[in-house]
């Protein structure tokens, strides 16, 4: 595996694979089994696989969340090497944002709902960095997990709106043994919080109404951002000891 941090160098490397399929898995690091499932699928469906590790500051509306976000690049590299990833892209902020985020992608409808209601600018930062990464790597396929379904749908919409010849591939949510959707943020949960967290997916899957679920979550030690059902999908976001957890289920 080659670890590259410069855009120009990565572009030069990937030019030699113009006749091959390139699969891309973007991450913010602190890799877990959910990321691994995406990478394994990318390996099966493409000739070359690129994984990026870039903790994107423009999608954080809370500085403390950015500061406390788990980081484990050395461990991530070990995982990626075992998976036989071809390229790891680890750019700096200056490399990705030479304009210092003067130019950005803005979606004006779905991004204002659900997570977008309480996380001002989050989706603009996310879409902008994904657009940049897709333009740099130019993959045939890019892989995203269904746990972040709102993100997934916004990325698909962006790719369609800008006529980008890239297939956005969705993979099912990978869950902990207690049913909690896997997330890098789960590492920050205490042992007691982990025991309590399993109530979140259980309630989302229940036959209770959205408002009933919110009431029960709040009574059980969670601080609920939202529980809302749209187009047959129930979305939820909660805080447990100030750690934000999101999930969604078909109902």
Low-confidence stretches: none
Tell me the distance between the termini.
41 Å
What is the H level of CATH, i.e. the homologous superfamily of the largest domain? HUPs
- What gyration radius follows from the Cα positions, in whole Å? 18 Å
> Order of SSEs, N→C?
EHEHEHHEHHHEHEHHHEEE
The CATH architecture designation of the largest domain is 3-Layer(aba) Sandwich
Structural class: alpha/beta
Largest sheet: 6 strands, parallel
Shape field: globular
Give the amount of beta strand, in percent: 15-25%
As laid out across the biggest beta sheet, the strand order is 1-4-3-2-5-6
CATH class of the largest domain: Alpha Beta
- CATH topology of the largest domain: the name is Rossmann fold
Outline the fold blueprint:
Layout: E1 2-4, H1 7-15, E2 22-27, H2 33-45, E3 48-53, H3 63-68, H4 73-82, E4 87-89, H5 93-96, H6 115-118, H7 122-137, E5 141-145, H8 149-161, E6 167-171, H9 191-197, H10 199-205, H11 210-219, E7 223-230, E8 233-240, E9 243-250
Parallel strand pairs: 1-4, 2-3, 2-5, 3-4, 5-6
Antiparallel strand pairs: 7-8, 8-9
Explain what this protein looks like in three dimensions.
With 251 residues, the protein is of the alpha/beta class. It folds into two domains: 2-171, HUPs (Rossmann fold, 3-Layer(aba) Sandwich), CATH 3.40.50; 184-250, 2-Layer Sandwich (Pantoate--beta-alanine Ligase, Chain: A,domain 2). It has helices at 7-15, 33-45, 63-68, 73-82, 93-96, 115-118, 122-137, 149-161, 191-197, 199-205, 210-219, and strands spanning 2-4, 22-27, 48-53, 87-89, 141-145, 167-171, 223-230, 233-240, 243-250. It has a six-stranded parallel sheet, with helices on both faces. It has a three-stranded antiparallel sheet with strand order 7-8-9. β8 (233-240) and β9 (243-250) form a beta hairpin. The chain is globular. It starts with a strand and ends with a strand.
